[in-house]
Amino acid sequence: MNFLKHNQMDFRNTIEPVLDPFPEAHLSLAEIDASYRGDHDLNPASFPGEVTTFKPAAVLVPIVMRQEEPSVILTRRASHLKKHAGQISFPGGRAEDADDSIVHTALRESQEEIGLNPNLVDVVGTLSTYVTVTQYSVVPIVGLVEPDFDLTPEEGEVSEIFEVPLGFLLDKSNHQKHSGFHNGIERFWYAMPYNDYYIWGATAGMIKDLSERVHSL
Predict the structure, then answer these.
(1) Number of domains the chain is built from
(2) How far apart are CA 217 and CA 206, in angstroms?
(3) 55-62 average pLDDT score
(4) Domain span at residue 91?
(5) Where does residue 68 rank: exposed (0-12), middle (13-18), buried (19+ CB within 10 A)?
(6) How does pLDDT run across 176-213, given as a tens digit for each residue?
(7) pTM
(8) How distant, in Å, are the alpha carbons of 8, 22, 130, 202 from that of 209?
């Protein structure tokens, strides 16, 4: 993947064509079918086919344009949270009525969670909407980030901010499939362990989507 060593304009011109355009509508989706990515990719029986309304959300996939090699900003969720405590995730969250677009949602949440200035983010497209078993429809917004930033975690939601080399995340040899039992049922998920960080679930699924798109070049 020699394009990782290119300058920002070359990088953008390479990655933008494999991304989806921004939806004209906001995040509310009246109908979702199995063509969407999601937790059901590896667990078809978990697809919430009877659900017609999903809670709209967006995350930012922030690719930092570092000179040596691009990296991706990820967060560790605070340990005291009732849901997904300690898990690795992209900055983002549920849409609010005041958000005028899915990009607004992703950038607002990123600023609130990690202090990322929206003016430093060049949004270039989206990955596939990701459907979760908790009935969220999450739109991953891909943005190129200028490296001149000063991030601060919002202590109520984020315990740590860190970066992972983009090349590591795109490398298929680092993509694993793990499993475990929940309520007596075996479930499968993607995982991409990096040092002491266990990247898995929806975050890993979105990264896998990006990797597949890049490898289609």
Answers:
(1) 1
(2) 18
(3) 93
(4) 2-165+173-215
(5) exposed
(6) 999 888 777 788 899 999 999 999 999 999 999 999 99
(7) 0.90
(8) 22, 16, 10, 10
184 burial via Cβ count (<10 Å: 0-12, 13-18, 19+)? exposed
Q: Are 71 and 64 in contact (CB under 8 A)?
A: yes
In the chain the first and final C-alpha atoms are separated, in Å, by 10
Please report, for the domain that includes residue 71, its CATH number: 3.90.79.10
| Predicted confidence (pLDDT) per residue in 5-27, tens digit | 667 778 888 899 999 987 655 44
Number of Cβ atoms within 10 Å of the Cβ of 140: 29
Backbone angles phi, psi at 165, to 5 degrees: -55, 135
Residue whose pair of structure tokens reads 């697809």 in the numeric block? 47
Residue 199: CB atoms within 10 A of its CB come to 22
Closest CA to 214 of 177, 158, 175, 182: 175
Looking up tokens 């475990």, which residue turns up?
180
3-state secondary structure of 55: strand
Q: What percentage of the chain reaches a pLDDT higher than 70?
A: 85
